[in-house]
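Action item from last week, closing it out:
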Amino acid sequence: QVQLVESGGDLVQPGESLKLSCAASRNTFKFSSMGWYRQAPDKQRELVASIAFDDATTNYADSVKGRFTVSGDYAESTVFLQMNSLKPEDTAVYYCNAIGSISRKEYWGQGTRVTVST
């Protein structure tokens, strides 16, 4: 079994930056894609950004395009989310997500909280 461990969540002010990190508990376990979802209070979980490792294709929610950048390392089974120009509406619990490269099984992290507030 493998677990996804997130880090980097924090309380920041509007306009500031933050970088989230996610790593698999076993980097010998490979994923075909990794990404980030978020869930704000009283809202559904939504895709923020993802990266497919076969062709490095990235996908972003419209609300974060131009502000957030997803990156990852297939060999290390890690994914990162650089968040710039943060807004109060970015406040949410951010979850790391990954798809097993062979099993196609979906994995989730426990979540890391990001709060953007004055």
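Closing note: The first strand starts at residue 4 and ends at 7.
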